[in-house]
Design brief:
Elements: E1 2-6, E2 15-21, H1 28-36, H2 40-46, E3 57-61, E4 70-77, H3 84-99, E5 105-109, H4 120-134, E6 155-159, H5 163-188, H6 196-204, E7 212-216, H7 218-224, H8 227-233, E8 241-248, E9 258-268, H9 288-302, E10 308-318, E11 330-332, E12 338-340, H10 348-363, E13 367-372, H11 377-382, E14 386-391, H12 394-407, E15 410-413, E16 431-432, H13 440-449, E17 457-461, E18 467-468, E19 478-479, H14 484-495
Parallel strand pairs: 1-6, 2-4, 2-5, 5-6, 9-10, 9-13, 12-16, 13-17, 14-15
Antiparallel strand pairs: 3-4, 7-8, 8-10, 11-12, 14-17, 18-19
Helix pairs in contact: 3-4, 4-5, 5-9, 8-10, 9-14, 10-13, 12-14
Bound molecules: ligand BES, manganese (II) ion (MN) and zinc ion.
Length: 498
Amino acid sequence: MKISFSKVSLPTEGALVVSVLEGRKPSATARQLDEQTDGLISRAMAASRFEGKKDQTLLLVAPAGLQAQRLLLVGLGKPEEIDALAAEKLGGTVVAQLQAAGDEVVTVAVDAIDGCPLAPVHMAAHIGFGARLRSYRFDKYRTKEKAEEKPSVAKLALMLEEHSAAKRRFAALDNIAEGVFLTRNLVSEPANVIYPESLAEQVKMLADSGIDVEILGEKQMRKLGMGALLGVGQGSERESQLVVMRWMGAEDENAAPIAFVGKGVTFDSGGISIKPAANMEDMKWDMGGSAVVIGLMKALALRNAKVNAVGVVGLVENMPSGTAQRPGDVVTSMSGQTIEVINTDAEGRLVLADALWYTQDRFKPQAMIDLATLTGAIIISLGDRYAGLFANDDDLADRLTAAGKEVDELLWRMPLDDPYDKLIKSDIADMKNTGGREGGSITAAMFLKRFVKDTKWAHLDIAGVTWAKKDGPVTPKGATAFGVRLLDRLVAEYYEQK
Ligand code: BES
Ligand code: MN
Ligand code: ZN
């Protein structure tokens, strides 16, 4: 879908989108159209439940007096409540509604609105951003789709006076969409296509954007003593990988970086503690945390972020086989701490144990944030709206929570208190890798905490938010890339030199 910005002139084809405010005088465009069409808009509103409330829409087909084939009225609600997120939702809703209608060209009139805190330039840019995000589709494996089954919209034009400024603003946001789409693509790919080495190959392509990429194989990891990560991958035919990405965008190249660490289990069968068959296919997206780190690094590089950022992803496949790790095995992590593997399905924490240790040891980051589809228990706690946030630093937790609210990727802080630590005591090693069913997400986080020294650290358990079962305003069902926009915002607001 091509998104463009142009000056105000009514379209002669396709669909025209006009916003309507709740309980207010119609916008300039709406007023003009109403006159031109002999009161079509006011009559349509009087004859329907459409009142211009937020998220309401009304589609009018072949309106007399207009050259456009369709007129879509969308509600914006109360002007004082309109913000960037509302504009993004509107963009997403418009695209979703019109994809099915058959129009190829869509024109959105962006009017100045009295009493609205969002200026038209930002309004237009964020409508475009929301439209872009919602237009995502992973259809490379559909070979038999007919043209009329495919989404129709090829061009979205936003018309407003200050179209050049809006275009520039949108271009900055579109870089973030690029990162989001990379993440969604990687998460959507099946596990016969994306496995540790092929995922590492994908990361290599980020070199084109100015990111330095380093790949460690099993031999190098063995040298470093990463027994926890390697144990998870030892049952797989595929070689485990650790990939390090570096974006050095700060003026001071010696400034301590912010580090992002991702769980990249390209398929989680559970290993010898094998999972039940139902929904096991979902475990292709158990590399979601790593995909967010990869997409985020791309977004930061594309928008030339003035920050030093490091991304580290631990890539493994968790399989049962004659060489697989057994329940009861004891492994030694890079930190020197030993772990009794009670359940081979609690593998993400084993991967992160070594990835976190390596990252803080090598890069001495000013803050370290990991993302992982770590526990089923977080889905029981929080469902699919909030991701779980665990942190050893209140400021970092507050910053993350605030950034999440701004981009509508919500975080809920969970406890990380010492008393939970005794639940992972082992009889024969320094710790065990499961703490039982109670507080399952918390004991998983407590396990990770044992591999963090005095670095400011946060852990995001994204098991419930990585894959959407239903369409959302700016995320079609499937891979969401939850975390990319949030962490991009965190960096922009708190870690970038202005
Ligand atoms: N990858 C899973 C967690 C998961 C479950 C993510 C469902 C997304 C959807 C993780 O590796 C796992 O298997 N966790 C176990 C831990 C248990 C064995 C202590 C779980 O949550 O059941
Ligand atoms: Mn597992
Ligand atoms: Zn897993």
